[in-house]
Write a structure and sequence with these properties.
The complex is a heterodimer. By secondary structure, chain A is an alpha+beta fold. Chain A has ten helices and eight strands. Classes of the chains: A alpha+beta, B alpha/beta. At the A-B interface, helix 4, helix 5, helix 6, strand 3 and helix 7 of A face helix 4, helix 5, strand 5, helix 6 and helix 7 of B.
């Protein structure tokens, strides 16, 4: 069964791609790509207390989310949210597991409340006053497919418009040896029931038997795609940047692939 | 929404394995909490520990071995749940039965153990992040163990996680992503949560006393629970009738003191169920036993249901099982409907005079047509579920 939703706006923050305007030019082949890590980001929408407490993964999520809502005609408080991350903040897990090996076992209370996988969703709801439904998901390397399916189900079943935010940041050593996410990246999409002004296209999703993932032809962008579960969305973003029609495939699970069809 | 039939359900908590153990403990007023420490913890606290988690997974599943997956594995084997899923797999096909699992800390206890034995700063060879610590690990483990190959999602919204699995599964069935869904939640004891909640000064040195005038906070527990949801064709006596979700937009670790988010979630669940407040017979409260939660939730309950709706928290029996609390209390709500039974608020001696709702202080038998259960989490994540008997 196909599920349809409209792409109202896009946001991105990844090495060499500080915002959607830059990314569009790169993904259309109009500007060269150079993959330098972005400098640390101060979320614009957070109140000062929360801004001080927000850990790196939350800041990374906010950067793309703020970019997406800045281009959307829909006030962010009206949007339901789906946040999706494979790891959220492994830096905090590292600090806590290290502290638990010290005799005093002192854990920072802020660190502890920031360990919840839905920390970014919580900070976001505070930042924009969003009191609607919010979900936070994990699908390890298939987080993109898991999140798109949940988002489509919310849009089509619960009759709401959704801000989808995908984000991950590199774990510190020694966890990096087990989970080598090598870039700080996030991608956000505002997905709506109706075609909004400035709509970038209509997405149809369905699950098909296993097909190879869509890839990027540029080697540096392909490396970026593989560097982070969030940047698995790059082939979809390239289609959106081109403004045309097309199909991308993203890994879903055993023997299954999510097929995403874009029409203008 | 179209109600969904609950064609099988089970839960394993500190009260024991499976439904009979829970129902017997509720009848006999047997508390599952004890004041022995967990693992190497030296905190003065009560915990709700599931017995038997020192046994490793069978050899074929050794790559997945960790406390959280062991707990999932034991939970799946109770009440014929794995057999019920196998039958559903036959009916619908393995790719058409979805898996939606809630957890907050997944297998992070495995990471705690690995950090004790770092060698030259490197993790030990037995540590496997993908199959233990990662939040998706337990969802993928449950999917593989049940032989399923369809949509599979891990939901991690702190203590509302395994209530929200019912919402996501309902949507997935409604949109045709799957024809049936295994929902559930698994969270296991670890030092991260014990010392973390202690750092927030939310852990009680004595047993958890929800709604009590002298309550001093949480007792942490662990649990695994599951339910099988299928389109309702009158094949099962109990149904999921509604879900409601909201965000507080207030604070990361404290609820909105006015309970607006809690009220919005309950209201949304009633609306989706097509139910009026007076059609509800009992509310299973989130009721953690912290000062802030119990007061805020009480405001929300009174605003929607008035002061006479029977309600209680069952965390005095099981402890707060965090990411598994949603499924534990969903299954307890199903037992209340099945048995026509209202459990009392265990360990509550004197209700806080600021709490105005009708806290059940003596368990009683009473036929129930419809109940609502609340789960609220850090980050202001709220979810309420309405369950009912088939009309």
């Amino acid at each position: 069964m196909k599920q349809t939703m409209y792409v109202c706006s896009v946001g991105i923050a990844a090495p060499g791609l500080p915002d959607w305007a830059t990314a569009q030019a790169v993904l259309r082949g109009e500007a060269p790509y150079s993959g330098a890590e972005l400098p640390p980001y101060q979320p614009q929408l957070l109140p000062p207390n929360e801004r001080r407490r927000a850990p790196p993964a939350v800041r990374q999520a906010f950067r793309a989310a703020e970019d997406a809502v800045s281009r959307s005609p829909r006030p962010p408080a009206e949007l339901a949210t789906v946040f999706a991350s494979s790891e959220a903040d492994m830096g905090i897990i590292h600090r806590i597991c290290t502290a638990l090996n010290q005799p005093a076992r002192v854990i920072s209370p802020t660190d502890f409340h920031n360990t919840v996988h839905n920390a970014a969703a919580g900070y976001w709801s505070i930042a924009v006053g969003a009191r609607g439904p919010s979900n936070t998901l994990c699908g390890h390397d298939v987080t993109l497919a898991v999140a798109l399916l949940e988002t489509a189900a919310q849009v089509t079943t619960d009759d709401c418009d959704v801000l989808l935010v995908l984000y991950d940041v590199p774990p510190p050593p020694p966890l990096y040896q087990e989970r080598p996410i090598s870039s700080s990246s996030s991608v956000a999409l505002v997905l709506t029931r109706q075609r909004e002004p400035g709509c970038l296209g209509e997405l149809s999703l369905d699950v098909v038997p296993h097909a190879p993932d869509s890839t990027m032809s540029d080697a540096a962008l392909e490396a970026l795609r593989l560097s982070n579960p969030a940047t698995r969305a790059l082939p979809l973003l390239q289609l959106l940047a081109a403004g045309g029609a097309g199909t991308v495939y993203v890994q879903h699970g055993d023997g299954q692939t999510l097929r995403i069809q874009l029409s203008p | 929404m179209k109600p969904l039939a609950i064609t099988s359900y089970t839960v394993t908590t500190a009260l024991g394995r499976g439904l009979d153990a829970q129902a017997a403990a509720l009848r006999e007023e047997r508390c599952g909490l004890h004041d022995r420490g967990f693992e190497t913890s030296t905190l003065q606290t009560w915990i709700g520990e599931v017995a038997g988690l020192d046994q490793p997974l069978p050899a074929a599943w050794a790559d997945w071995d960790c406390r959280n997956n062991r707990l999932a594995d034991i939970g799946l084997q109770q009440d014929g749940f794995d057999a019920a899923v196998a039958a559903a797999r036959e009916r619908h096909g393995a790719a058409r039965v979805g898996v939606f699992m809630g957890t907050s800390t997944a297998g992070v206890q495995q990471t705690e153990l690995a950090y004790r034995v770092l060698e030259d700063g490197r993790l030990p060879h037995w540590f496997n992040h993908r199959t233990s610590q990662n939040v998706y690990a337990v969802a993928d483990y449950v999917r593989l163990r049940l032989g399923l190959g369809g949509v599979c999602s891990a939901i991690s919204t702190a203590c509302s996680s395994s209530a929200k699995v019912f919402a996501s599964a309902s949507r997935a069935i409604a949109t045709g992503q799957c024809d049936a869904a295994v929902v559930g939640g698994i969270d296991s004891l670890c030092l991260t949560t014990l010392y973390g909640f202690n750092a927030l000064q939310l852990i009680s040195p004595e047993v958890c006393r929800p709604a009590d005038a002298h309550r001093t906070g949480l007792s942490i527990g662990e649990a695994a629970g599951f339910a099988l949801l299928e389109p309702d064709r009158g094949q099962a006596p109990l149904r999921l009738e509604g879900y409601g979700e909201s965000s507080d937009a207030h604070h990361m670790s404290s609820p909105d003191p006015d309970g607006r988010g809690a009220a919005a979630a309950m209201g949304d669940a009633l609306r989706r169920a097509g139910a009026t407040p007076d059609s509800i017979g009992y509310i299973n409260l989130h009721g953690t036993g912290t000062q802030a939660n119990d007061l805020a939730e009480d405001k929300a309950v009174c605003a929607l249901f008035g002061r006479n709706m029977p309600c209680s928290s069952t965390k005095g029996w099981t402890g707060h099982t965090l990411g598994a609390a949603g499924i534990v209390e969903a299954v307890f709500s199903l037992l209340c409907l099945r048995d026509g039974f209202l459990p009392r608020s265990l360990n509550t001696r004197q209700v806080d005079p600021l709490i105005e709702s009708a806290i059940v202080l003596e368990s009683r038998r009473q036929p129930l047509r419809r109940v609502i259960t609340n789960s609220f989490g850090f980050g202001g994540s709220n979810c309420s579920l309405v369950f009912g008997t088939a009309a």
